[in-house]
Specification:
mainly beta, about 45% strand, 5-stranded mixed beta sheet, about 375 residues, 29 strands, 4-stranded antiparallel beta sheet, Methylamine Dehydrogenase, Chain H
Length: about 375
């Protein structure tokens, strides 16, 4: 998503902010800066094109900290035992910032190893001793997972193969021993910016890696006809089910699934909604998230200005809501509850049980939220 595009959308009017499918008006919430409040959520964003930041805030958008970024940020990871928040640069990333979670104060900057760049996400080991970061060996095109010793100033210990090309998102499974990685399948090189260099031959995959040894445990690949579906983002439910989001690099006229579910040892389930909703997504899902119960999930499509709700147990479509430049998603409290952010500065509380947006903090030109919304309490 382009921040300038977001400003243009914002200038077009906040009336386009939230077209609720049930026709109800959203409650507008005011934003005030508290003193010393702890963040419920953290997201990267921008105040204007080129003016990038990361902020901590609550469900009403009340900001508790803000830290300016040298470039556009992307993913967030929390080292909860030390109250640290890590901010990953957008691919091809050249920094990871370690911030103090309560205040947003900069504690350390992590730079990539020679011949590597960051891919935008990372995850911690169960004891918070190790950081696992998705990286690119850009001269060979080999995906790798960089391993960092958190207790020794994030010293890089080495790396293991990611099991594919273009590793993007990564998470620790509930067994506290296994990493799940979304390999997008797209080869890139920082000298080419964000250009995609192997679209005719791209090969996405979802892989499981033993966190202790780096051994590849399981690799899930899509059918050959879907090889241009880049597996980009993921989330993990408490029972070990994984949801993964895809972005299609083929013809927009093709009918392809964009959301998948997987359990270890089983085949992936690829989900599809109604044809008109699938067309509106523009074959692109930017983020996915489970609710606290693990039964319900959301998938956002910023290019189509909508998000979709699903029943993860039945694998069935529930609803779609229109929200301009929507992308960031997070569980928010009980079963079926989500917070949703957008690139025009809106925050919306969605209830999957009722199938509707309950309230919205209105668009704010001063705070344009980026791709992801993370919660240190989850």
């Amino acid at each position: 998503m382009d921040v300038l595009r977001r400003q243009l959308l914002l200038g077009a009017g906040a009336a386009a902010l939230c077209g609720l499918s049930n026709g109800l008006a959203a409650e507008t919430l005011e934003t005030q800066r508290p003193n010393g409040a702890l963040p419920r959520y953290v997201s990267c964003g921008a105040h204007s094109p080129g003016d990038y930041m990361v902020a901590g805030f609550d469900e009403m958008g009340v900001v508790s900290f803000e830290h300016r970024l040298p470039e556009r940020g992307h993913g967030i990871a929390f080292r909860r035992s030390e109250s640290e928040c890590l901010v990953f640069a957008r691919r091809p990333g050249r920094f990871v910032l370690v911030l103090q979670l309560e205040t947003g104060a900069l504690l350390q900057r992590i730079d990539p190893a020679a011949g590597r760049h960051f891919y935008g996400h990372g995850a911690f080991s169960a004891d918070d001793a190790l950081l696992f970061a998705t990286e690119n060996d850009y001269e060979t095109g080999r995906g790798c997972i960089g391993i960092y010793d958190c207790r020794a100033g994030y010293r890089r210990l080495g790396e293991v193969p990611s099991g594919g090309i273009g590793p993007h998102d990564i998470a620790l499974m509930p067994d506290d021993a296994t990493l799940v990685v979304a390999n997008g399948g797209i080869r890139t090189h920082p000298a080419k910016g964000r250009a995609k260099l192997n679209l005719p031959t791209m090969a996405p995959s979802l892989v499981y890696i033993d966190a202790a040894s780096g051994r590849l445990l399981e690799k899930v690949e899509l059918p050959a006809r879907l090889h241009q579906l880049s597996i980009r983002h993921l989330d993990v439910a408490g029972d070990g089910q994984v949801v993964f989001a895809m972005q299609y690099e083929g013809d927009l006229a093709d009918e392809v699934p964009l959301v998948g579910l997987h359990r270890r040892g089983a085949a992936a389930r690829l989900l599809r909604g109604p044809d008109d909703v699938e067309t509106r997504t523009r074959r692109y899902v930017g983020d996915v998230a489970f609710d606290a119960s693990g039964r319900y999930l959301l998938a956002s499509s910023p290019r189509g200005n909508l998000f979709t709700a699903w029943d993860a147990v039945r694998g069935s479509y529930l609803a779609a809501e229109t929200l301009t430049d929507v992308c960031g998603l997070s569980a928010a409290g009980g079963a079926g509850q989500f917070l949703v952010s957008s690139g025009i500065g809106a925050l919306s509380h969605f209830d999957a049980l009722q199938g509707e947006i309950l309230r919205t903090k209105a668009a704010d030109a001063a705070t344009l939220w980026d791709n992801h919304l993370a919660s240190p309490s989850l």
